[in-house]
Amino acid sequence: MGDTENVDDDAYTAPRAVAYTTLRFETVQGVARLTLDRPPANVLSIDSMREINAALESLEYQREVKLVVFSAAGKYFSPGFELGDHLGDRAYIMLEEFHKIFENLAKTDKPTLAVVAGPALGAGSLLAAACDIVYAAASAKFGHPEVKGGVFNPVAAALLPRLVGRKKAFEMLLGAQSMTAADAERYGLITRAIPDDRLEAEVAALVQRFQDGSAVVLQSARRAMSGGLDLPFAEAVRHAEDIYLNQLMASEDAEEGLKAVMAKRKPVWKDR
């Protein structure tokens, strides 16, 4: 697809309606919430991953979205894949749908937050860790027990060394080593481990900070950071400067924000 900056939004076809059965999905006041809801433990089936991908893809042209929040209903965030999906031809489809989630998370310009209030294991741990920010209850745990069942997660093999370092990644993946939320914070798997009784309030405060911001500024900054993660430093700086000069500074909100600071007043964002 070519440049979309000057194309009217009406030219796009709205994403097809999806009947969500394992996911609660809504966007309110600039916050898109994806809540895993597949009792009893939010196991990630092929169908549930398709719903996650449909929700993420539907956000592409929703320019007012300032934050995407992943959470889960029930006691578990997710213990990982549906066991039956590992077998036969379903294994390929399972991995394709899971891989697509990471592709969608990588290409989105919306900041993402995972809220983990219970165990996040295997693919569930990776789903949370792939988000930009991860807040977890102190009682939550993370881990990769897959080798005990005769398999491993290919995304974990690629992603864990990048997040927690080679030595810890080998221990987690090959040794089926789980970790507490405090250790997950210490090794960089999550952002913050928070006392259970404070998690909801801390998440609400963070969400409010995003709601108080400009969608176009947040999205520009997110593109600048995510697009430069795997680039050499000089190229990453050029990438960020290009977004700053040619996208952000062409927005109304950049001008409004600077004027508001100079006038010592609160900015009035237009999210464009």
Detail the topology: elements first, then pairings.
Layout: E1 23-28, E2 31-36, H1 46-58, E3 67-72, H2 90-107, E4 112-116, E5 120-121, H3 123-129, E6 133-137, E7 141-143, H4 154-164, H5 166-174, E8 179-180, H6 181-186, E9 192-194, H7 199-211, H8 215-227, H9 233-246, H10 252-263
Parallel strand pairs: 2-3, 3-4, 4-6, 5-7, 6-9
Antiparallel strand pairs: 1-2, 7-8
Written description of the protein model:
The protein is of the alpha/beta class. It folds into two domains: 9-211, 2-enoyl-CoA Hydratase, Chain A, domain 1 (Alpha-Beta Complex); 215-263. 43% of the residues lie in helices and 14% in strands. It is built from ten helices and nine strands. It has helices spanning 46-58, 90-107, 123-129, 154-164, 166-174, 181-186, 199-211, 215-227, 233-246, 252-263; strands spanning 23-28, 31-36, 67-72, 112-116, 120-121, 133-137, 141-143, 179-180, 192-194. A six-stranded mixed β-sheet has the order 1-2-3-4-6-9, with helices on both faces. Strands 5-7-8 form a three-stranded mixed β-sheet. A hairpin with a 2-residue loop joins strand 1 (23-28) and strand 2. Helix 1 (46-58) runs parallel beside helix 2, helix 4 packs antiparallel against helix 5 and helix 8 packs antiparallel against helix 9. The chain is globular, with a radius of gyration of 19 Å.
Provide key terms for this protein.
single chain; about 270 residues; alpha/beta; 2-enoyl-CoA Hydratase, Chain A, domain 1; 2 domains; six-stranded mixed beta sheet; three-stranded mixed beta sheet; globular
